[in-house]
Amino acid sequence: MPDKKTLIFAHRGIPALIAENSLSSFRYTLEHHADGIEFDVHLTKDRIPVIMHDERLDRTSDGSGFIKDKTFAELRKSHLKDGQQVPSLKEFLELVNQQPIRLNLEFKTDLFHYANIENIVMDMVGQYDLKFPVIYSSFYLNSLRNCYAIDPTGQYCFLHSKYVHNPAHFMKANHLAGLHLKHYQKLTNGLPQRIWTVDDPLVEKKLLRKGVAGIFTNNFLRAGQVATFFQ
After folding, report:
1. Rounded to an integer, what distance in angstroms lies between the CA atom of residue 36 and that of residue 215?
2. Rounded to two decimals, what is the model's pTM?
3. In angstroms, what CA-CA distances link 5 with 2, 178, 227?
4. 157-24-207 Cα angle (round to 5)
5. How many CA atoms lie within 13 A of 167 on its CB side?
6. Residue 221: which of 78, 11, 73, 65 has the closest Cα?
7. Tens-digit pLDDT profile for residues 35-59
8. Cα dihedral 87/27/13/67 (nearest 10)
């Protein structure tokens, strides 16, 4: 049995039940005591941080086009599949303020790098009384480097879908606190890794036995039930 608990992160809330990256989905995770929430941040045309996974509105809302081309007011005219508005980061932080839940904020900067997004987001996060330090992640390594330049004490984790060669050196050279990987990779010296996005209970069991730092899942309730047998 692993020495440290594997944390179960609610990936975009609980998409298995409620519209992904919606305030009601995040509220549900709080009410049902998820270990953590993973969510995605973009900037609107007028530099407002908002929460949505895709760069475009089309898949998860009744709107269309790129977030970067919409003002916040224009974005709010679109609604998620269940009628909710696209949440701002400010609304999300007000919801989780002082709540005992860990946060993984993903900068969605691998397709478009929104100018100054790291400063805007980290400044806003710093205005709230969060119980745990925010974990910042991105597929775009330069975003994490920008974050480190802003705050060298932060937790920055690189998202990657492939094998990471010489991970200890890679993490040290890029000031990373962990790796967020699509597939489990054997790491030395207890380097933290969190695995995405895992919805198969059999895979969750294997990862729990290996003692990974975290699992991202679309159904944290089911994953939590699996975890109770291992932790």
Report:
1. 10
2. 0.97
3. 7, 16, 9
4. 40
5. 22
6. 11
7. 999 999 999 999 999 999 999 999 9
8. 0
